[in-house]
Amino acid sequence: MKKVSVGLLGFGTVGTGVVRLLTQEKERLEARMGCSIELKKVLVRNKNRPRKVLIDSRILTTDASDVLDDPEIDIIIELIGGVDKAYRYILRALQNKKNVVTANKDLMASYGEELLLEARKSKKDLFYEASVAGGIPILRTLTDSLAADRIVKLIGIVNGTTNYILSQMSHEGLSYEKSLQSAQSLGFAEADPTSDVEGLDAARKMVILSHLAFSIPVRMDDVKITGITDVTREDIVYAQKLGYTVKLVGVSEVNNGAIDVRVEPTLLPNGHPLASVDNENNAIYVYGSTLGETMYYGPGAGEGPTAVSVLSDLLAVIRNMNLGVTGNHIFLPRREMHNREENSIESQFFVRLHMKDEPGSFSLLTDLFKEQRISLEKLYQEPIVGKDIAEISIITHTTNKILFESSFDVLRKMDVVLNAKYYRVERG
Ligand code: NDP
Ligand code: HSE
């Protein structure tokens, strides 16, 4: 039986899942591929760290050359994370004529094009299904299954950690800090969870999705990013009173050849299919010109689900090796990048504010919206007991974003308004 040798870089959460699944399913996978699959070397930082899955300790190494320069290794799986080292290792692997599988969205969002060009030049595969939405097979769905349709918009809940935190705050009443700790102990969060909670991880995934869905070379600088660190339990509760759920949502939309990509905490009407995507689950909602609306849902992070995507990429590489067609399935953006004018963007908005509870203050507020011709869809007022302060929540009708923002600025500075914040609202 022919043998394929694999080198693994990184043996943390996802690496453990890959070794576990490869060991458990070895017989079935080998029969399917018609070859034996040997894990030859595993790069770690610390060989003495206790591991969660049984492995022959002789294959562990702390020297990257043992993996990258071994002529017998056909496929490298990169799971160390980070950018600089991962970039150098993958480049070296491709230059050494090895196929590569990675789950690294930080790297693919910033240097994906360069590495894909190198893969094409070396006639080797570079697959990265696990980099977006963990276990959901969304990248191949966009490039293969939906290839015939013209995609116009994507909405994604693509970060498991923040979705877990917001779900725990919404449904269990837990604090932000407790929910984050729990996401970290479950292995969803990045080594430094700042990139999760500040929206960078979701933005990187939206960059990768935008490349594949629209063939537009969006860069991280093009994405408008707001994380969840300022979302409070009160915001969630008052959104719920108006029939909405707060989620960290990524939106990528093309209009007249120009693209708008943003990641921000957003209110979804409770009836929207994305509103019930909870905990570490992810979902990508795709608007196709002909197919219409479809949603791809499942576990977006964690050891097992991510390992399934990584190993399925490995099998896809082996299939291509068997057919002698590695390096043929490389997608690089073909269209030009044009950012959409902010002034062309329209949305509904949720405004939450505290106002002095005294005669006339409410009409100052409604007069402002009337003057700006911003129409209100829902309004909720509640006194804060014993404080002469009113808690007010508003959902506007669809309005021009720039007009809304300038009106909000006026509102925030009114004498009767003590504090105010707003979120975007996605249509149902
Ligand atoms: P971990 O932090 O759990 O594991 C990283 C592993 O890489 C560890 O085994 C570590 O070694 C090793 N490592 C790190 N730096 C080096 C280095 N410089 N040299 C040698 N070994 C190194 O990360 P995850 O498994 O969570 O994530 C891996 C990748 O997968 C990342 O790109 C992440 O973004 C991505 N990903 C993660 C998901 C998840 O749910 N966790 C889901 C989807 C993608 P040691 O064990 O000795 O410390
Ligand atoms: N930290 C990431 C998340 C892991 O929470 O979604 C999966 O990419």
From TrEMBL:
ACT domain sequence ranges: 350-428
EC number: 1.1.1.3
Pathway named in the protein's UniProt entry: Amino-acid biosynthesis; L-threonine biosynthesis; L-threonine from L-aspartate: step 3/5; Amino-acid biosynthesis; L-methionine biosynthesis via de novo pathway; L-homoserine from L-aspartate: step 3/3
InterPro entries tied to this protein: ACT-like_dom_sf, ACT_dom, Asp/hSer_DH_NAD-bd, HDH, HDH_cat, HDH_CS, NAD(P)-bd_dom_sf
Swiss-Prot/TrEMBL keywords: Amino-acid biosynthesis, Methionine biosynthesis, NADP, Oxidoreductase, Threonine biosynthesis
GO molecular function, one term: homoserine dehydrogenase activity
Protein name per Swiss-Prot or TrEMBL: Homoserine dehydrogenase
Organism: Sporolactobacillus spathodeae
